From TrEMBL:
Its main location: membrane. One of its GO terms (cellular component) is endoplasmic reticulum membrane. Keywords: Hydrolase, Lipid metabolism, Membrane, Transmembrane, Transmembrane helix. It is found in: Membrane. It comes from Seriola lalandi dorsalis. It comes from the Eukaryota. One of its GO terms (molecular function) is phosphoric diester hydrolase activity. Pfam families: GDPD. This is Glycerophosphodiester phosphodiesterase domain containing 3a. The keyword Membrane applies. Residues 39-264 form the GP-PDE domain. One of its GO terms (biological process) is glycerophospholipid catabolic process. It catalyses: N-hexadecanoyl-1-(9Z-octadecenoyl)-sn-glycero-3-phosphoethanolamine + H2O = N-hexadecanoylethanolamine + 1-(9Z-octadecenoyl)-sn-glycero-3-phosphate + H(+); N,1-di-(9Z-octadecenoyl)-sn-glycero-3-phosphoethanolamine + H2O = N-(9Z-octadecenoyl) ethanolamine + 1-(9Z-octadecenoyl)-sn-glycero-3-phosphate + H(+); 1-O-(1Z-octadecenyl)-sn-glycero-3-phospho-N-hexadecanoyl-ethanolamine + H2O = 1-O-(1Z-octadecenyl)-sn-glycero-3-phosphate + N-hexadecanoylethanolamine + H(+); 1-O-hexadecyl-sn-glycero-3-phosphocholine + H2O = 1-O-hexadecyl-sn-glycero-3-phosphate + choline + H(+).
Length: 264
């Protein structure tokens, strides 16, 4: 037993020290990624706290109020059109118990006149535009604005329609990322993802070193959904490069105040 410990303890010590060193100096093993964009202000579902989620009006409003990236989800209609929608079943959004994949584009119902903000219970948005947007219309109207596109289903046809682009960590890959971090293996594993977009419960503070590591590799780290100043501040403090909010004007006002004080 003593001979075993004689060999294993130095090995574990060496492994731990090497892992910690490489965690702080990732460029020794990995090439720094070149990011095509850098966004601190991201509008969740187009800023769904201020306009109805996923509509052209919401996206336009967000861009007018300083957003640097639009986050949205997409689905495929029965006749092959890619539309912007978080849900496959439209009961929550429209009041109609139908699925997008069962309907042709012309038969999609309108959004409700008032829609509750998913991550801000008791708060509602409204707007003049209640039509589900076409993804191609978003790209055409905002050709210079980065779009964070979440494909909500394992649909190869839908994935093929969106072509090749930088991709973010899936939920499974995010869990693997944490396992690699806590096992000390993270510095030794190459990462193909360019983005990490993740919910921001305060427990994420315990994983702050993971975010810093990804930032050092020039991967964008976006935390959501931050709808109040305290949450926005906390997200940046743990290492987020960008914050996603349902309220683009709230986020813009926060960034404006704190940039003037050199806090971001």
């Amino acid at each position: 037993m003593s001979n075993f410990l004689y060999f294993i303890l130095p090995a574990l010590g060496g492994y731990t020290l090497t892992s910690l060193y490489l965690l702080k100096n990732p460029h020794i093993l990995h090439r720094r990624k070149r990011t095509a964009f850098y966004c601190t202000h991201i509008s969740h579902r187009g800023g769904c706290g201020e306009r109805i989620e996923g509509t052209m009006e919401a996206f336009t409003h967000a861009v007018q109020h300083g957003t640097q990236m639009l986050e949205l989800d997409c689905r495929l209609t029965h006749d092959g059109h890619v539309v912007v929608s978080h849900d496959e079943n439209l009961l929550r959004q429209t009041g109609h118990d139908v699925t997008i994949s069962s309907l042709e584009l012309q038969d999609l119902p309108l959004y409700k006149e008032r829609l509750e903000v998913t991550f801000y219970a008791g708060h509602y948005s409204s707007g003049a535009d209640r039509k589900l947007a076409l993804l191609e219309d978003v790209f055409r109207k905002f050709p210079e604005i980065p779009v964070s596109l979440e494909i909500k289903e394992n649909n190869h046809k839908l994935i093929e329609k969106n072509g090749s682009m930088p991709y973010s960590f899936s939920m499974n890959r995010g869990v693997l990322l944490l396992l690699l971090f806590y096992s000390g293996l993270l510095p030794f594993v190459p990462l193909g993802e360019s983005l990490l977009q993740f919910y921001f419960p305060r427990i994420i503070n315990r994983c702050g070193c993971t975010l810093v590591y990804l930032c050092m590799l020039s991967q964008c780290v976006h935390l959501f959904v931050c709808n109040e100043d305290d949450d926005i501040k906390a997200a940046f403090e743990v290492g987020a490069t960008g914050v996603m909010s349902d309220y683009p004007t709230v986020l813009s006002n926060y960034l404006s105040r704190n940039r003037s004080q050199d806090r971001i």
